[in-house]
Design goal:
Elements lengths: L1 H34 L2 E6 L10 H14 L3 E6 L7 H10 L4 E5 L4 H10 L4 E5 L8 E6 L1 H15 L4 E6 L4 H17 L4 E6 L6 H13 L5 E5 L1 H13 L3 E6 L10 E7 L1 H14 L8 E4 L6 E3 L9 H16 L9
Parallel strand pairs: 1-2, 1-3, 3-4, 4-5, 5-11, 6-7, 6-8, 8-9, 9-10
Antiparallel strand pairs: 10-12
Helix pairs in contact: 2-9, 3-4, 5-6, 5-10, 7-8
Length: about 325
C-alpha cells in the first residue's frame, strides 16, 4: 500500500514538473514572439501630430504596420525641451531596429547621430543623405503638383493663381516649380505668385498671407503646402470666397467650399511599404534611395470638388497625366 502511495506521489511530482516546464516554454514563446517584433522609432517635425498633413500621414503608416502586429513603435515630437538630435540619440541608445526622420528639417540632426552610431539603420523621408546607414524615401512631388497647377489654371477666372509654401526648402521648391509649370502648360498668360511663410506651425500667419495674396495680388486659386500654417490659409481662402488646393492628405473637410482637390503624397503608404521591405530583408533595405512618383501611385490628386471640367478640359488633364507618368513630359526642378 505504501508502495502504491509512493508511486502515486511520484507520478504527481512528474506531472507537476511537466506542466511547469510546458508553462515555462509557453511563456518563453510569447516573450520570444514579442521580442522578435521590429522596433521602430520616428522623429516628427516640430509641428508634430495633429497637422492633418505630413506628420499625421507618416504616423498612420506606422499605425497600420503595428496593427498588423509586425512592429512596435514609438515617436518623438521635437520641441523647445527636446531637439531632434536628442530624439535620434535616445532611440539609438535604446537600440531601435529602425529610426525614421521626417523631412529635410531634421536631416542635419539625423546625420550627426547616424555618424556616431554607424551600425544603426535610419530612414529619412523627403530628403537624401550620403551616409551609408541612412536610407531615404523621396517623392517626385513635382509631378502631382504639376497636375494641381493644371486644375488651378482651369479653375481661375482671374488668370492669377498662387503658391503658398511653409518653408523655402528643396522639397517645397519642387512643389512650387511643378505647380507653376502645370499652370503655364494650360494658360501661358497666367500670373503665378510664390509666397513662403517661413513657418509650418502658424495658422494665423497662414491666414494673413492668404488674405494678402487674394486682396492685394488678386489670386483666386491658391495651392497651399504649409502644414498648420496652411490650415489657417485654407480657412481664410474659404472665408474670402476663393479656391484652394490642399496637400499631403485630403484636406477637403477643412474648407469644403474652397477646396478643388488635394495633392496627395502618400507618405503613409510609402512608409508602410518601406518598413515591410525592411523586415522582409532581415532589417536592411534592398535600395538605399527610394524615389516614387505618379507612375508608382505615390503622388496624385484626390477627387475634384467645387469644379466640373468640360469634356475638353478632361481630355487635356488626362493627356497631361499620361505623359507625365510615361516620362514624355519632363518637369524641370532646380534647387
Amino acid at each position: 500500500m505504501k508502495k502504491n502511495m509512493y508511486i502515486r506521489m511520484g507520478l504527481t511530482v512528474v506531472i507537476a514538473l511537466t506542466l511547469l516546464i510546458l508553462g515555462a516554454c509557453s511563456t518563453g514563446s510569447k516573450t520570444a514572439a514579442t521580442d522578435t517584433k521590429t522596433r521602430v522609432g520616428i522623429v516628427l517635425t516640430e509641428v508634430g501630430l495633429g497637422d492633418r498633413s505630413f506628420n499625421d500621414a507618416a504616423f498612420n503608416g506606422l499605425v497600420k504596420a503595428r496593427d498588423e502586429k509586425s512592429i512596435v513603435f514609438d515617436y518623438r515630437e521635437p520641441s523647445k525641451d527636446l531637439t531632434a538630435e536628442a530624439a535620434f540619440e535616445a532611440f539609438s541608445k535604446e537600440k531601435y531596429d529602425l529610426i525614421i526622420g521626417l523631412s529635410n528639417t531634421v536631416m542635419a540632426d539625423m546625420e550627426k547621430v547616424a555618424a556616431k552610431y554607424p551600425d544603426q539603420q535610419f530612414l529619412l523621408i523627403d530628403s537624401q543623405s550620403a551616409l551609408p546607414n541612412i536610407a531615404s524615401i523621396s517623392f517626385r512631388a513635382e509631378e502631382g503638383s504639376y497636375l494641381a497647377g493644371v486644375i488651378a489654371a482651369m479653375a481661375s477666372k482671374e488668370n492669377h493663381v498662387g503658391f503658398l509654401g511653409g518653408m523655402e526648402i528643396p522639397v517645397l521648391k519642387n512643389f512650387e516649380q511643378g505647380f507653376k509649370q502645370g499652370v503655364l502648360a494650360v494658360n501661358p498668360k497666367a500670373a503665378v505668385d510664390i509666397v513662403y511663410a517661413g513657418d509650418f506651425g502658424n495658422a494665423d500667419l497662414g491666414k494673413q498671407l492668404a488674405q494678402r495674396m487674394i486682396q492685394e495680388q488678386d489670386a483666386d486659386v491658391i495651392y497651399v503646402a504649409a502644414g498648420l500654417t496652411g490650415v489657417g490659409a485654407l480657412t481664410e481662402i474659404q472665408a474670402l470666397g476663393k479656391y484652394a488646393i490642399g496637400v499631403d492628405t485630403d484636406q477637403f473637410f477643412l474648407a469644403e467650399k474652397a477646396i478643388l482637390t488635394s495633392m496627395l503624397k502618400n507618405v503613409d503608404v510609402s512608409i508602410y511599404n518601406a518598413v515591410k521591405s525592411f523586415i522582409e530583408n532581415k532589417h536592411s533595405f534592398p535600395k538605399k534611395e527610394i524615389v516614387e512618383g505618379l507612375a508608382e501611385n505615390a503622388v496624385g490628386l484626390t477627387a475634384l470638388h467645387n469644379i466640373t471640367l468640360s469634356e475638353e478640359q478632361q481630355r487635356t488633364f488626362d493627356d497631361l497625366k499620361t505623359k507625365i507618368s510615361s516620362g514624355q513630359i519632363k518637369i524641370t526642378v532646380n534647387p
